[in-house]
Amino acid sequence: MSRNKAADPLLNHEYDGIREYDNPTPGWWHVLFLLSIVFSFFYFLYYEVNPESATNESTLLAARVAETKRIFGAVGELSPDEATIQAMRGNAQFLEVAAGIFIGNCAQCHGRDGTGGTGTNLTDDEYKNVNRLEDIYSVITRGAGGQAMPAWDNRLSQNERVILAAYVANLRGSATGGKGPEGKAIAPWPPIPAPEKN
Ligand code: HEC
To answer: Domain 57-185, CATH 3.10.450.50 — does that match?
Structure first.
């Protein structure tokens, strides 16, 4: 690149025979630099200070909640009886919602695959507080073991607890290994009904 010596005069200093031109960074570079500082200020305010800012995560969560409301709206309130829990055990759409709730709220104690941790293994045949499908709903709602298993009635809606009960019932037999048996072996669940569309 040719150099305009009149615009870039040699500077006075010299180090070990090396001299340099007065060659400042160009104006457009300064503008970009300053703009990025201004931008970072607003970016910081928007994402770090403003509690309402939408991150990818909160947008996804809001979309999930809206979708769950939509499909729940279509069925009304699910009652926590055996027939309803049985029906939900064959409902792929609700089971997918329930899987999300399980990962978000239950997996930290029962493991992502339900094989247990702080909480009991939900994939084996032994249960401490459960004999029938409805008991799963009761444990989720009221808690168990002196709240070592927390009560979820304030934190999850009835519909969420009903579909979770179905999801937890289906965890039985879905994996091997994990935490050892606690409680006693109970009779098998009735077979999962044929898939139901809604
Ligand atoms: C803080 C840890 C913790 C969390 C979170 C937790 N659980 Fe539990 N859960 C336990 C413990 C501990 C037990 C065993 C209680 C006992 O000793 O009776 C248990 C028991 C259960 C049982 C009964 C199992 C049996 O053998 O009787 C079910 C069903 C269950 N949990 C489902 C869930 C679901 C669904 C969620 C999420 C909404 C959840 N748990 C969240 C710790 C937890």
So the answer is: no
